[in-house]
Amino acid sequence: MDINIALLPGDGIGPEIIAEATKVLDRTAAKFGHRIRYTEALVGAAAIDATGNPYPDTTHCICREADAVLFGAIGDPKYDNNPKAKVRPEQGLLRMRKALGLFANLRPVTVYEPLVDRSPLKADVVRGTDFICVRELTSGIYFGRQGRDRHDTRAYDTCTYTIDEIEQVLRVAFRLAGTRRRHLTVVDKANVLETSRMWRETAQRTACEYPDVTVDFMFVDNAAMQIIRRPTDFDVIVTENMFGDILTDEASVISGSLGMLSSASIGAKCALFEPVHGSYPQAAGKDIANPMAAVLSAALLLEHLGLGAEGRAVRKAIDRTLAAGVVTEDLTAPGQRSYRTSAVGDFIAAQI
Ligand SMILES: NC(=O)c1ccc[n+]([C@@H]2O[C@H](COP(=O)([O-])OP(=O)(O)OC[C@H]3O[C@@H](n4cnc5c(N)ncnc54)[C@H](O)[C@@H]3O)[C@@H](O)[C@H]2O)c1
Ligand SMILES: CC(C)[C@H](C(=O)O)[C@@H](O)C(=O)O
Ligand SMILES: [Mg+2]
User: Fold this and answer.
1) Whether the CB of 331 sits within 6 Å of ligand 1
2) Where does Mg(2+) bind (predicted)?
3) Residue 109 confidence (pLDDT)
4) SS3 content of the chain, % helix, strand, coil (to 5)
5) pLDDT tens-digit readout, 214-234
6) Is 43 helix (H, G, I), strand (E, B) or coil?
7) CATH number of the domain at 103-266, please?
8) Which residues pair with 104 in a beta bridge?
9) What percent of the chain clears pLDDT 70, i.e. is strictly above it?
10) What is the rounded average pLDDT for all residues in the chain?
C-alpha cells in the first residue's frame, strides 16, 4: 500500500520524537511491503519563525491531502513567558484542529506491566488500567469569545457548546464503548455550568440509542480523584475540551510518564495522530525525551488506515523494549540505566 503522511514535527522535542516515530514506521513499512511518502510541513513556533503564521495555508493543504497527519508538539518558552504576544504557537494547533474538523480526540490510558512500579500510585491500583478518554477537541472554552475590556482590567473566555457538537462526540464515545467493556462515563460540571447541563441532557437522550452501553455521570472534580484512586473502573470517558486536556495529563501518572500517552484526533475527513505531551523545552536537543508516545501515536495511525497487523507489530515492539528495560530517564527506576531517545527508537525499530 502507498501511504501519504503529512509530517508536522513542530517545536522543542517535536522533531526528535517524530524522527523516532518515522524510524519505526519505515521499518514496519519495509517489513510489510508498504511505501510511505512523508511530506513535511511547518506548524507552531517553527512556522511563526519562518512565515509569521503558526498554521500556514501550505501546511493546511498538505494535511488535507494526506492519508493521515503525524504531529509532534508545539510551544516555545519565548511565547509562554510573554502573555502579550500577539501570535502564539498554540494558535497554530487550535486552528489546525478546527480547520481539519478534528472534533474527537481519543487518548488511551494503559499501564504496561514493566512500568507498574514506575507510577507514584500503588502497583495494585494501576495494574490493569485500560481506559480511553474521548476529549471534545474543536469547541468549548478553547474556541469561545475571549478578550479584555478597553481598560485592560477585565478578561473573559466564554464556553459555548451546541447540541450538534456534543452529540457528534458523544456518538464516537458510545460507539467506542460498544466495542469495549460497554461502559461510558460522562464527565461534566453539571452542578454549575449550563454547557455541562446540556452535555448531560444530550448524553441521557443519546444513551437510548445505545442500550447495550451503561452510562454514568461524574462531576469533573470527583473524576479527577476517582481516575487515580480506582483507574481500572473506567472503560470510556467522554468530556469537553478543557476537562479532557487536564484529566489526561493527570491520568498519565498511572502510565508512569506523560511520555507514554498517545492520541488520535479524528474528524469526518481527516485524522491526526499526536502525543498527549507538549514540546518539553527543557529537553529539546538533548536526546533524552521519551519517544514512545510518538511511536504509539504512529501505531494508532497505522490502525486507523486499516493496518491492524502493522499496528500490532509496533505495539509488540514497544512491549519488548519495555521488557528489556530500554527506556528514557523519565521511566528508570533508581539505579537503572537510562537510554537516549534515539537509542530507544533504534531498539523499538529493531524489534519489528
Ligand atoms: N500538543 C502540544 O503540542 C502541546 C501539549 C502540551 C503543551 N504544549 C506546549 O508545550 C510547552 C511546554 O508545556 P508544558 O511544560 O506545560 O508541558 P509538556 O508536556 O511539554 O511537559 C510537561 C512535563 O512532562 C514531562 N514530559 C513531557 N513530554 C515528555 C517526554 N516525551 N518524555 C519525557 N517526559 C516528558 C516532563 O517532565 C515535562 O516537564 C508549552 O509551550 C505548551 O503550550 C504543547
Ligand atoms: C498546547 C495546548 C493548546 C494543547 C491543548 O490544550 O489542547 C495541549 O495541552 C494538548 O493537550 O494537546
Ligand atoms: Mg494538554
Assistant:
1) no
2) 221, 245, 249
3) 98
4) 50, 20, 35
5) 999 999 999 999 999 999 999
6) coil
7) 3.40.718.10
8) 136, 266
9) 100
10) 98
